[in-house]
Amino acid sequence: MKFTxxxxxxxxxxxxxxxxxWAALNVAEAKIVAGSSNKERKLLDKMVRTLYPHNTFPNGxxxxxxxxxxxxxxxxxxxxxxxxxxxRDLEKNSFGDLSFNEATKYLKSIEGSPFFNHVRGTSVVTxxxxxxxxxxxxxxxxxxDKGGYVNRGFNDLDWLPEPRIxxxxxxxxxxxxxxxxxxxxxxxxxx
Length: 191
What we know:
With 191 residues, the protein is mainly alpha-helical. 63% of the residues lie in helices and 0% in strands.
């Protein structure tokens, strides 16, 4: 090919167009998210439900917990790789097909791994801090902003039997004897 003015201008225009296209494609924003596929979400959801099984909890808190595990697991490149590898192991071991007891046994085998610790640590906070879970468990939430618990629910333990309010005879005799000794000392001191 002969180098001509026309070839030079055509090459320059092509290069400029490619550079503009590359600049518009921001590689830093191109992000791979571990846990983004439906299959991976189901695996994580099953893991959370196996770690914290509650038959009375609705699906919403588990869904939000799974979403939080995914978001926090993709916070940086290192965590994303940890999530990706952990999800691959779950899939490789057919975690989605395991029974509850088999899934629990499998989770015991990976206990202590960074992936397990991430899912467990994120789930316990997110799941039990969900207001929908509070309603199921009967927790009324923090009481500080409402004046504290002393005048608001401190003594409303309706799930416990009423306490027996009887004084043990030995204690009663001890207290009466102690009071008599103190009274005698007081009398002697005043004389």
